[in-house]
Structure formats: structure tokens, C-alpha cells
Amino acid sequence: MSQILKNILRSRWYPLIFQIFTLFFFSIIVYTLITGPASPHDNFGTALTWVLWWPIIPFIFLLFGRFWCAICPFATINDIVQKFAGIKLKVPNFLKKYGIWIIDATFILITWSDHIWGIVENPRGSGILLLLITTGVIFSGVLFERRTWCRYLCFLGGLAGNYSRTGMLKLRATPDICKNCTTLACYKGSKNTPGCPLFEVPRNMQTSATCNLCGYCVKNCPNDSINISFKPPASELWFIKRPRLEESFLAIVIMGIVFVQNITMLEIWQKWQKALTNILHTDNYAVLFTVLFLIAMAVPVVLTLIASKGVALVNKQKSWENFARYGYALIPLDLAGHLAHNLFHLLAEGKSIFYTGLTFFTGQELDNMSRSIVGSSTITLLQYSLLVLGAILSLYTAWKITKNNEPKNTFNVFLPFGILIIVFFLINIYLFMLPMAMRT
């Protein structure tokens, strides 16, 4: 199987055929979002974006790592613009240093904006968002080399980097072969194939977070050093040698974002709004949601800081070092919560993709048709199953991280983060158990 995958990556048609496909549908999506029906339930672009693509993208990260980033229409647009109008300046140092923090901030801002202005529920708003991102991609493609946008600025790139660490595909070079290499063709590229678009040298690569499986290094390597293989889910998280605070911070904040996504769709949210109105003496939704949003972001961060301090009392390391190292252990549960939330939209509204597509291509409208693929009880069972698996994998990841760093006092160091993961798991379970006001 590994050789088959390697042959696919070596093919002249990979990833081109996928890029053509995604760019074609991206064009349809933008067109229908801007010019199609104003109702999100009748808009084909909304169905493709928020009912299909957004729910399945975490599954893609889990199964194939950052494969999506190789065929993303924004990446393709970047390459096209760069080919004909690129100045190809070096990436500014501040982007290299603070790019992940910019990505973290942008991801949080877009999530907040969606709830304030209803981007998901507004086809025009979704279309404008995509056009704004396209504008940023074009500017980046004109100014900077390779895929600077994808590596240092894309809000989905940070999420992709974290989630791809749980992915089950691994592309790595063979050290014994690479040590004698002098061409570095995998990075620099060749006459027919560009170098690594995400600025990685495969022989130095120890993570899948910045590998989009584009296959360029496989095509360029003159020594057949690059291999692709399968790995256990999340196993990469067990052996991170240089934890980065900004990556762990994003993992921890995503936990809060998942809480928010669920809370605002529950009946309890109406009660919390009334309580906040009485406390803040305002019924302005933007103010009420912003307060809730900040609290939801702060709770996981504060709890993780407490757990980090608890670990520090045992392993005598600085709390922020424990925060950075063990934040990665939350990624599997993050992914599970994200999948569980999005699974509802895919399975409860999935048929809308067919109905709105039929209307778009033929003009035929299907009224009063059920949009669900399976029943609510089946969806609930799948959601709970995902959360259980995510919690188990997070617990095991925290244990492996501890065992690899604290082999003599493993249990006592593991305990604070083991408890933290269980707390986050129970919060997720509780929120999924509550009655929903609506699912939109």
C-alpha cells in the first residue's frame, strides 16, 4: 500500500487533477453564495461549504493529514498568481516568528465574527468572506515566495497543523540516504516540479504539521529517499521534542471554541443570555456573546494553567513549559469534539446538498423534503462514541508524553492532566446531552 501511495504522489497528474476539481467547485460555491438564494437552506454554495466541506475537513486531517492543503483552491490560486505576477520576496522574519500567533488570532476572530454577524447563515456573508481571503491570498502570492499564505497566515492552516498531527499518513525522508545528498532537490525543486511549497526540508522534518502531501519532494528526489507510510492516530504527539507554546495555546483555545459552538445551539443559551442581561444591564447580543466567548476561551486556558502548575510541583519545571508540552495532549479530544459537533450538520442536513444542487443545475425545486441522512438517535450515538475515543486517545497521549519525559515519576506527573482531560470530556458530554434550541 505504501508503494501504491508513493506512485500516486510521483504521478504527473497528482495533485493537479484534485486541484482542478476543487478550484472548479470553489468557483461554483462563490458564484452561488453571491448570486444565489438569500436563504442558507436553499443556497447550493452554503450547502457545499458549511454542510459538506466544513464537517468533513477534520476527517480529512485525521485520515490524510494536511492533504487538503495540497489541493485547496486558495493554494492553487496562490500558485497561479505567483507564476505570472510573483515578485517572490523572502518571508519576513516577523511572519516566521509570529505567524502562528497571527493564525491563532485570526481563527478566534473569524469564529467570533460568525456568531456576531451570522456568516454561516448568510450566503452573501460567506461569499464575501471567501473573496476577502482570496484577496489576501492574491496579495501574498504576488509579494512572497512559495505558499507563504498557507504556511504563515491561513487561519485554517493552524487548525490543519494541529489536527494533522493525529493523521494516519506520514511522509518522511530516509536519513541514511539523505546524509550524502548535496542537491537538496526536494526543497529547491527542479525544472519540472517546484520545491516544497511549505518551506520544509524533508530530511529534517519530524512532524506532519507542515507537510501537505503535495508529492513534490517525491518527484524531485534523485535518490528515492522519500517514503510514505501509515502510523497510529496521534502517535506523532507522543514524541514532540520542541513543544511550541503557540501551537498548544491554539489546541487549548479550540476546546473553548467547541464549547461555544455547542452552547449557542442549546436551550440553556437563552437562559444564560437573560442572566447576562441582568448582570451587564444590556440586551445587546454582540456584548452578551462576546462576554460568553471570552469566558469560554478563558476557562480551558485557566484550567490548563492550573494543571500545568500541578505538574510543575512534581517535575520541578516551569509551568509554561508544562503548558506547552501537555497542550498537545488535548488535540485528539479537540478533534473529537469538533467532529461530533460537525457530524450533526453533515448527517442532519446532508440531503440539502443534493436538493440545492438539483435546483442549481436543473431549476427543479424539492419542497418539504427531509434533509436528514440518519435519525437523531444514531447521530447522538456517533457523537458520544467520537468523544469517548477522543478522550481515550488524549489520555493515552498525555501518558505517553509523561512517560517519555518523566520515566521515573510517570503517574504523579500525568495525574493533573489526566484529570483535566476527563473534566473537558465530561463538559463535552454534558453539553451534547442538553436539549437543543436549534441546529442551523
Describe it:
This protein is an all-alpha fold. The chain has helices spanning 2-10, 16-35, 44-64, 67-71, 73-85, 93-117, 123-143, 148-153, 155-164, 175-178, 185-188, 216-220, 245-263, 267-280, 285-315, 319-326, 331-349, 351-362, 376-405, 410-433, and strands at residues 169-173, 226-230. The chain has a two-stranded antiparallel sheet with strand order 1-2. It is globular, with a radius of gyration of 22 Å. The model has no long low-confidence stretch (mean pLDDT 92).
Quick recap of the structure?
This protein has helices at residues 2-10, 16-35, 44-64, 67-71, 73-85, 93-117, 123-143, 148-153, 155-164, 175-178, 185-188, 216-220, 245-263, 267-280, 285-315, 319-326, 331-349, 351-362, 376-405, 410-433; strands at residues 169-173, 226-230. By secondary structure, the protein is mainly α.
